[in-house]
Write a structure and sequence with these properties.
The chain is of the alpha/beta class. The chain has 1 helix and 9 strands; from the N terminus they run βββββββββα. The strands form 3 sheets. The protein has a 3-stranded parallel beta sheet with strand order 1-4-7, with no helix packed on it. The longest helix has 30 residues. It is elongated, with a radius of gyration of 15 Å. 8% of the residues are buried.
């Protein structure tokens, strides 16, 4: 896992897969997750940050959306609520 420390990301797009960010500032940045190894954020600050999902991560979200539209709303909502409560 790559470690990035004490960096400021301002008005940038950053791919976060397989990276540990320590004491970083994300200001008006876009964080991109492609579904690889999970990133971690330790003592970081976030200002006006957006999230993007690509590749496998985007496929997973598309799959969940399709399931929800296809009649599996209660099951998908249970997953989403689990994410909110950190209970998978």
């Amino acid at each position: 896992m790559e470690v990035v420390e004490n960096q400021t990301f301002r008005s940038e797009t950053i791919t976060v897969d397989d990276t540990q960010f320590k004491n970083c500032l994300f200001d008006n940045a876009s964080l991109v997750y492609a579904g690889g190894a999970l990133p971690s954020f330790v003592d970081c600050q976030f200002r006006s940050v957006s999230l993007q999902f690509t590749a496998a991560a985007a496929n997973t979200l598309e799959f969940l959306g399709g399931l929800r539209r296809g009649g599996f709303a209660p099951a998908v909502d249970k997953i989403i609520n689990g994410v909110r409560n950190q209970q998978y």
